[in-house]
Every structure is written in C-alpha cells, then in structure tokens.
Amino acid sequence: MAVNSRPLPTLPVLPDAATEQVLASGLLPELAYAFGGPFHFLLPDAFDANLWDMQGALAAAGVDGFVYFAKKANKAALFVERAAAGGAGVDVASVAELREALGHGVRGEHLVVTGPAKDPALLHLAVQHGAPVAVDALDELDTLVTIALTGRIRPARILLRALPTAQPHSRFGLTEAELATALDRCVQAGDAVRMEGFSFHLSGYALQPRADLAARLVELCLKARVQGLEASRISIGGGLPISYTDADSWHTFLTEHKSSHYHAGKTFHTGDFYPYHSPLAGADALAALLATQPQAHEHSLARLLRDAGVLLLLEPGRALLNQAGATVFRVQGVKERDGYQILTVDGTSLSLSEQWFNSEYLPDPILIPQDPDSPEGAFPASVGAATCLESDMLTWRKISFPRRPRTGDLLVYPNTAGYQMDSNESPFHDLALPPKVVVDHTDEPRPRWRLDRHFT
C-alpha cells in the first residue's frame, strides 16, 4: 500500500530523449524475455556527441589536443569502435585491452598505455605498435629502454607520470628527484626512446588543481627540451565530471537524506557519494579548465599550452559515456517490510559498482510495470540482489515508485555506461554476466538492436 508519510528524497535523472524513446518503444520487455536475466543497453549516438563536444571545446580554445577513451570505464567493443571512427584514441592498461582496441580499429599510435607496474608483455606490445607509455616508475623506464634497444624496431614512446604535489601520498607517479633521474636516463638512452612529455592523474573533480598541475607539466616540458628531449605533450588524465541530476534535486537530497530513508537504517557519508550534479560537466568542464588561470601565471591554461607549443592529451571515461547506456533488471520477488517493500531482482549489485566504494548509485531507477493499470500512488521500496549476502543491495535507499512494484516488472537504472556496468561485475553464484545490447535508430518507432561485439 502507498505510504502517506513525508515524501522520501528523490534523485530524478536529467531527461534524455534517446533513453526515453527506448523506454517507450516496448523493446525492453522483449529483451528481458529473450535474455532471461539482466542486461545493459548501449546508445552509440551519445558517445559520438560527447566526443564531438570535447573535441569542439579544444578547438574553440585554440588548443591542439587529442582525446583517448579510457577503456576501463566500459568493456563494450562499441565504444572503442566509436572512438576510432571519431578520430580519438583509447587508454589501455592491460594486454587484453590493447588487443581489443587494435582488433576494433584503433591504430597502435592512437593508444596510450597507463597503469602501475605494467606487465612486460604489455610494454613489448606498446613498443611494437608505437603506443606511448605513461611511465610510473624508474624500473619501468629501464625495462622500456631494454625492450627498445633489444628489439631495434622503433623507439619507445614515453610520457613520465608525475606525482601530484597536492597528493604527495599517492602510490602513483614519479617524485621530483625521480623525474630528474628519469630525464637523465632518457638522454642517455638516445634514439632508443622518444621522451614525448609528462602525464598525471588527479583524484577528485576540482578544476583549479588540474590547471595548476598542468601548468607545472608545461614548465617541465620546457626544461626537458633544454636537455635535447622532445617533450611536446602533456596528459591530464580523466576526472571531468558529469551531471546525472539537476542542482536543486541534488542539493535537496544532500540536505534531507538520513538513515531512516535506507533499508536497515544504513548510513552513508555524504562525502562518499559521487557528485551527481556538477555546475560544469563534460565538455563544459573541459572548456572551463582551459580558461582557468593557473596559480602564479598571468594567462589561462589554454594560452600557456599554445605559447609553449604543447599538445594536450585527455583520457576521459565517464565524461564520454554520459547518457550512453542503461541497465535493466526484472523484479524476481517482493517482500513487505515495515512501511516499505524489498524488491529482489534477477541480478546483483556488482552491476552497479558504487558498492565497491561503500557508496550507492543514487539516480532513481525507473519502473516499467507489466500491468499498465497497476495501482498508482507512492510506493517505497529498496532493491536487493538474488544472492545470499545481506550486503548485496542494488539500492539501500527507499525509492518512492509511482506504481506498486510487482514480480515481473522491470527496473531500469539510467545512465550506467560510465563505470557502473563493468568495474565490479563477476559471475557470482555462476550467474552469467549481463549481455550488452547496442540500440540503434532510437528515433524510429521500433529501435533496432544487436549484441555488442566484445571479444572475451
């Protein structure tokens, strides 16, 4: 029955025409029946639009730049294919990711290899295919030099990853002393290496620290050139935020949510939530970053890059996947609790990876009832998984659904392409991983679909 108490906090997603057209088409119940379990659907046009907007922001600022899609954000072959078609590269961190990218049309020189303590086999492939490597440690640099000298096929392309001064306890990156040593070794290696510049990855989403660190890397490029090194580019990694909801909904939610709004009185720390609204998101955040004036500099970051002749490299993941897909579950069981329901769906929270961070994927799921005439009202429910773990909850929060959820209904979690679909999935209980469906022609009355061509 509907609950008549004070309304629960909500977090509605921003409208998206393509997603809404898929929901209205009647396709999802058919796919749920066909697959007999949860699945994801992917929207390629959204990825294309996000990439074009990001490339447009670089052009508008007069900055030479290149975008790499961070493949770890989603395993689908679709997005690698769209990156290649859109003139972008791919950021990989394993042999399997590199092979997948090559197999789906990305040229070797349009890959960038990142991550700590890389497998020597990955470094060999990077050198063979002409992919730059973000070097995270001095022993890794030595391995690359040895590979290049031994193979004598082509030089190892190198970016030196700097330890962020604002995050001195990070386990990633080279200290000032290590950078100086690395530069000396690059000079000594001669033609075996091409030291193309520097890189960093910064946690969080604030723009000013990114601009400050990028300006520092520009200065390092200028100093490295004095040593006879190329030093022509810097990579600022990812970290461009996106918005899932509007500002009012987000601020209201943060103000009002409390433990009684969650199953079992679960408590979340507000600081552990992803910032589901950002005043500047995606390409707009990139444009604002380029316009930011780094500390101790008179001009914008864009001007510093232009004046120094430095190419800006980006490795966004989530920002390229905004509105590029959603996740669908079937309600497998319903229990009544003290004033709310517990829905059990035919999948696990491993498909919504915020649980990995002791957090929760907060955007409201959308109910697609089997019976369009089911009772209307306000029906609060939390959502659990079909496993034996108390903690395996997709949504601890009590969602106020506009119709009474019943077994057989579908729940759609919107905008999950960025990290949610892949970061934490596993075949727990020998459950199959949810398939990915590419939905084309969403503007037609009957969208067309196909399975993604992921190799593994």
Key words describing this protein structure:
456 residues; alpha/beta; Lyase, Ornithine Decarboxylase, Chain A, domain 1; TIM Barrel; 2 domains; 9-stranded mixed sheet; 8-stranded parallel sheet
Task: Provide a short characterization of the protein structure.
The protein has 456 residues and is of the alpha/beta class. The chain contains twelve helices and 17 strands.
Topology at a glance:
Layout: H1 17-25, H2 27-35, E1 39-42, H3 44-60, E2 65-70, H4 77-85, E3 89-92, H5 95-103, E4 111-113, H6 120-129, E5 133-135, H7 138-151, E6 156-161, H8 176-189, E7 193-199, H9 207-226, E8 233-235, H10 247-256, H11 282-291, H12 301-308, E9 311-314, E10 325-336, E11 341-345, E12 366-368, E13 376-384, E14 393-403, E15 410-413, E16 436-440, E17 448-451
Parallel strand pairs: 1-16, 2-3, 2-9, 3-4, 5-6, 6-7, 7-8, 8-9, 11-13
Antiparallel strand pairs: 1-10, 10-11, 10-15, 12-15, 13-14, 16-17
